[in-house]
Each structure stands twice: as structure tokens, then as C-alpha cells.
Request: fold
Amino acid sequence: MRSTSSTSAPDLDEDQSFDYHLPQRVRVKSAFHFTPVTVARRAAQLLAPRDGMRVLDVGAGPGKFCVIAARERPTCKFVGIEQRPLLVELAQRLAHRMSAANATFLQGDALEHDWSGYDALYLFNPFGELLLRSALTIDQTVLRSQSRFEACVDGTRAKLAALRPGTRVVTYHGLGAAAPDGYELAERVQLGTDVLELWIKAAPAADDAPSAAAS
Ligand SMILES: C[S@@+](CC[C@H](N)C(=O)[O-])C[C@H]1O[C@@H](n2cnc3c(N)ncnc32)[C@H](O)[C@@H]1O
Reply:
């Protein structure tokens, strides 16, 4: 979800033609809540630079990021997990219509999903909506509060911190908190209405690694 500090407009032609496939009530939310086409393409390259990589979109909406990324990196797999059943249905339809067989979608709470099977994760400020007034939300089906926002962000940082070294994380409009522990900023690109940041989990320092003598 966009933060309020907009710097430039997305590529309207491509975005309008993509958003055309969404029902009107979801389409009107796209510019604010879903990744612009140019940003999705660049994020796909940052997330999946090698063939065969597996990427999780944490909070996939109607699948805009996953479908565009899947077409950009056809040898990689993009999985989107989304809490709203209606958006999952739209995402599945969109992937089928756009022949993006390497984009798949799951319905559920991203924080209850196992993230360990992925090489990379994409987060477009997924919990920011929990702090919005109702006129700006995607719909009224999700209970919003500051405490829920904090629990989601803390849970996300804990899950990211547990992933293996080399895991790539790309954020757009941030993730709602400071970078996860143990990750290093590898790239920062101004694009769309904010910046894309690529974070890579570092190997533990020699001092932190468990030693044979200790076992
Ligand atoms: C800002 S939108 C981004 C959509 C998509 N990633 C994109 O970039 O086009 C965030 C999405 O995350 C979903 N979301 C938020 N918290 C979630 C959770 N705990 N589990 C699953 N989905 C969640 C919201 O329903 C919303 O559709």
C-alpha cells in the first residue's frame, strides 16, 4: 500500500490496460494499493536474478505483482498469499487469462504460512492498510487497529530474521518498520511512487556461528 509521500506517477498506459481486467470496485483501488507495472518488472529482476528461483508475495491482492513478475521471469515461480478470498479468486483468474502458469495463489494469513521454502519475498507495505481510515481501505472486510499492525510487522520481522542467508527481500513503500535484523541493503531504486529496496540476508559472522568445540 502506498504511503502518502508520492514522488511521481506510475506508467498510466500499462497500468490502465492491466487494471482493465479487474472489476470496477477493485480497479479504483489499484493506483494506491497495487504495484505499478514498471515497479513489478524491476522488483521481479531484483527478487529472482537466477532461473528456478521461488518468490513469495506477502499479501498478493488481486495478483498484479505476481502475474507481471511471472511474465518477466518465466523460469521462476511466484506464489502470492492473500487474506481476502475475493482477491485470491481474481488473482487466479488473472494468471489464467494472462497465461502466467508460474504465478499461483493461496488464500490465508501470510504470517501463518511457512516462508522457509522461498528464495525471495516481496512486500508492498502489506499491513499499512491497518492504519488507514475506512474510505482508503480496499474494502471493509478486515479489522484494523494499531495493535494488529504492530503484531503483523513484528511477526514479519521475526519470520524474515529466521530465513537462511542469501534470502532476498524487496520492499516497496517499506514494510512498516526498520529493515529486518541480519539483512543488508543491496540496492535502492527510485521508482513509481516510492523506492524499491533489495535486502539480502547476510551469512552469520564467524563469532556468531556455532563452533564444533561448543557441541
Ligand atoms: C498493498 S496490497 C499489495 C498487493 C500486491 N502485493 C501488489 O503489490 O500488487 C497488500 C495486500 O496484503 C494483504 N494482506 C495484508 N495482511 C495480510 C495477511 N496477514 N495475510 C495475507 N494477506 C494480507 C491485503 O489484503 C492486501 O491485499
Residues 1, 33-35, 57, 59-61, 64-65, 81-84, 87, 109-111, 124-127, 138, 152 surround S-adenosylmethionine (CB under 6 Å).
